[in-house]
Amino acid sequence: MDGLILMSLAASALRATTPLLLASLGGLFSERSGVVNIALEGIMIFGALGAAIGTFLVERQVLAANPDASLWYAPWVGVLTAMMVGGFVGWIHAVVSIRYKADQIISATAINLMAIGIPAVILTGLFDNSTRSAPVQNRLPQWGIDGFTFSPLVYLAFVLVPIAWYVLYRTPFGLRLRSVGEHPEAADSVGIDVRRMRYSGVVISGVLAGLGGAYLAIGNLNLFVAEMAGGRGFIALAALIFGKWTPIGSLGACLLFGTFEAVGTLLGGGQLLPPSLVQAVPFILTMLVLAGFVGRAVPPRAIGKPFEK
Length: 309
Prior knowledge:
about 0% strand
């Protein structure tokens, strides 16, 4: 029995870690380039909305033409939609922050606020309610052995960690990205296009955070629910800080916070604590961990500073 509980807790922790890790890796590319991105929460919501609606529309169009058609590819269309939507929202943040040199915190906060209002308008137009989409018939498949199966995005999230490390530390692109986040003037002096690199970092951030939203909508559930990110974007940002803006550090922090969430879910399932307290457990533990750590985390030197050529 104890072994089953531990396996269930481990599986739950990996599932809870996945959206945090995808969003945290996204934030890593943005902030390493020198652009603060606290819009991860809003981008995840937009990505989740895109995934659910993209899958639903494909199903509706194909089934209208052929009721017996196979729709195994529909959720993958939803995943691509989520990535494109996330990248587009990230691009908006980049334009406002980089081209127009607006305050990056304000720009990201505006995106988080839009993620509350815009989905409600879209849902009302498509589904006649402002809180949720219609369920999709085809969510992402579950891969693995019996009793220990996961969405493909769970595997992808963990595979992306060494890929992100390699890109950042072993490629010319990664060297340039980190240089514009540390010393943009020096990078500019040797011919690196600072603005282009920052655009790239923020758009990649949006794509990965949108992917995290896709997991929430069609990897973990089969529909979009208003504000379904539930603060995960902010926890992902905390994990990025806790992990000292590195892929491996972010992985460890996300696993830690994902375990907190899994423990909270386990406590809630056993009805050992009031539901409101159970929901607060991951956030309480996150704050306790960060309280003694944030002061020792050193961000990229040029983060949050507009570049003046």
